[in-house]
TrEMBL record:
Residues 15-139 form the MsrB domain. GO terms for molecular function: peptide-methionine (R)-S-oxide reductase activity. NCBIfam families: peptide-methionine (R)-S-oxide reductase MsrB (TIGR00357). This is peptide-methionine (R)-S-oxide reductase. It comes from Rhodococcus kronopolitis. It is an enzyme of class 1 (oxidoreductase). Its EC number is 1.8.4.12. PROSITE patterns: MSRB. SUPFAM superfamilies: Mss4-like.
Length: 140
């Protein structure tokens, strides 16, 4: 798991530049570690084949082949597209101990990853990702 020594993000913008690039809702989740309400996200129930990119910087994060239905209210993936696509960081906010998922390219907040929940996936992990953090590029 990554720590304060995370590598410098490849994409670096000022807060004003991020606010200009992102909608207020996107900024609240991606740059301020917010969470969208469950069952309202654009990609929660999507089964379209394609690639999921970071909405902030367009880095490839997940693919539809790793997406699965977890019934948790957010898009769920059992693994990122590439092992270095995301950074995992301990999150002890809100009185809980969780693992935050960040885009490795711009360090935007994506969601959290959970283990040992018994889903029938190859990794037994659930990357619970905010739809608003993603942009789906459908496969041709």
């Amino acid at each position: 798991m990554s720590s304060a020594s995370d590598p410098t993000p490849r994409v670096q913008l000022t807060e004003a530049q991020w606010r200009e690039r992102l909608s207020p809702e996107e900024f609240a989740v991606l740059r301020q570690a917010g969470t969208e309400r469950p069952h309202v996200g654009e990609y929660t129930d999507t089964t379209t084949l394609g690639e999921y990119h970071c909405r902030a910087c367009d880095a490839l994060l997940f693919t539809s082949t790793e997406k699965f239905e977890s019934h948790c209210g957010w898009p769920s993936f059992f693994d990122p597209a590439e092992s270095d696509a995301v950074i995992l960081r301990e999150d002890v906010s809100l009185g809980m101990r969780r693992v935050e998922v960040l885009c490795a390219s711009c360090h935007s907040h994506l969601g959290h990853v959970f283990e040992g929940e018994g889903y029938p996936t190859p990794t037994d992990q659930r990357y619970c990702i905010n739809s608003i953090s993603l942009r789906l590029t459908p496969k041709d």
